């Protein structure tokens, strides 16, 4: 079984964050107001989860420009 690391957890987080912003942008019309608000709360929840897990999901730093 593959081991979970910070990179494997941050990719789905980025997908949820970007998807939430996309849905919120696309549903900014009055007809879809409840979906717009729900997408905004999804984005806020994703940010809160990331801030809560910040110490555990710290990526190793390679230095400037990725270690070049």
What key phrases describe this protein's structure?
single chain; 68 residues; mainly alpha; 2 helices; 60% helix; 0% strand; elongated
What does this protein look like?
The protein has 68 residues and is mostly helical. Helix content is 60%, strand content 0%. The chain has helices at 6-26, 33-52. The longest helix is centred in the N-terminal third of the chain and has 21 residues, at 6-26. It starts with 5 loop residues before the first helix and ends in a 16-residue tail after the last helix. The model has no long low-confidence stretch (mean pLDDT 81).
Q: Give the terminus-to-terminus CA distance.
A: 32 Å
Give the biggest sheet.
none
* Distinct helical segment count: 2
Q: Give the overall average pLDDT.
A: 81
- Strand element count: 0
**Morphology call:** elongated
- The SS-based structural class is mainly alpha
Give the percentage of residues in beta strands. Answer: under 5%
The helicity comes to: 55-70%
| Low-pLDDT ranges | none
Radius of gyration: 16 Å
**Order of H and E elements:** HH
